[in-house]
Amino acid sequence: MRARSKQGKAIHALLTEADGPLSASEVWRALHASGVGLATIYRALKRGVEAGELCEATLPGGQTRYEPAGRVHHHHFLCSACERAFDIEGCVPGLERILPPQFAMTGHEIVLFGSCSDCRDR
Amino acid sequence: MRARSKQGKAIHALLTEADGPLSASEVWRALHASGVGLATIYRALKRGVEAGELCEATLPGGQTRYEPAGRVHHHHFLCSACERAFDIEGCVPGLERILPPQFAMTGHEIVLFGSCSDCRDR
DNA sequence: CTCGAACTGAGAAACGATTATCGATTCTCT
DNA sequence: AGAGAATCGATAATCGTTTCTCAGTTCGAG
Questions:
Q1: Residue pLDDT, tens place only, B54-74
Q2: Is the pTM of this model over 0.85?
Q3: How far is the CA of B76 from the C1' of D25 (A)?
Q4: Distance of CA B108 to CAs A82, B94, B104, Å?
């Protein structure tokens, strides 16, 4: 196993410190100024998922978002204005009560929509 | 205003009778045997949204799904095997309790994942 | 019935997201 | 330092989805 490259460290650090899952292009927006190419970002994200260090967040929207694996169960807030996703702690009980019996549930995702603090005033 | 065409009626009927929101390609799979072209489906879906008769379901996945507008509040089940979406009646209370105060919530979506009845045995 | 507007099917084109390719660079081990 | 493998950045290519174009058809008011 080879050590993580400088670029790989930067990508991983960005995802770890972010307020929520990031898409490849969001990572690129943050890092291309320091010379990181888009292909490198896609490669690092894919490698991260294969290595079990990252996982894909299943949110609405055209692009895959990534977050560090192994986080405690949480959900997401999606800002309709800036399209950013934010982590939300906690969950709600009673989901199995609305599940019809013919389905076998393996997971769930709750997405709250609205405006984030940066966009709510404007 | 012109009356709905034969094709438009078929598309609307399909969406109304479906178990959940359908994507353009799902509609096409159901109707191309009767000679309906893919472009017609995209045009009818877009027209339906503009006319307020249809709305887009905001679910994870690469394609937009459509359902008749004006349905009572409900959520969706997404089969991981066949990728079909199904309507689920009901909702759960307490979502506002997990919303951090810096966000302004305008809506929410709950997606349950798992296997539908057709896929759970295989 | 006649005309023009709206609609159609087929296929080409556009689009955004992602992946593959290239030669150059960096890393790790010896 | 030197060899070989992994990674890099740039860019071309690919992929699935959606839109556009065009010539032919259908609708509906007059």
A1: 999 999 999 999 999 999 999
A2: yes
A3: 39
A4: 17, 12, 11
